[in-house]
Design goal:
Blueprint (H helix, E strand, L loop, with lengths): L1 E7 L4 H15 L7 E7 L4 H7 L5 E4 L2 E5 L4 H9 L9
Parallel strand pairs: 1-2
Antiparallel strand pairs: 1-3, 3-4
Length: about 90
Amino acid sequence: MTTLTLISKPDCHLCDVAREIVDTVVADLPEDTEVEVVERSILDDPSLFEQWWEKIPVVLIDDGLHAHWRVSADRLRAALTAAPRTEEPA
């Protein structure tokens, strides 16, 4: 399962837009694509605030930075539907 984390704060217009994009993209994914969406506020966590306050909204996919400020639906969809990399047996 893939974990998508949206880091935001209340009363943030760009965060509202990012949330709508995330919700739309996740709802339209193929049924066999499992994504857990977690939203965290920089106001609830001082370490998140310190790290991300000037870049919200931030989207992390499996704890790796995917996007900040503006979220592209096409890019997010591609990242969430990308086949996991597997190594060929030797």
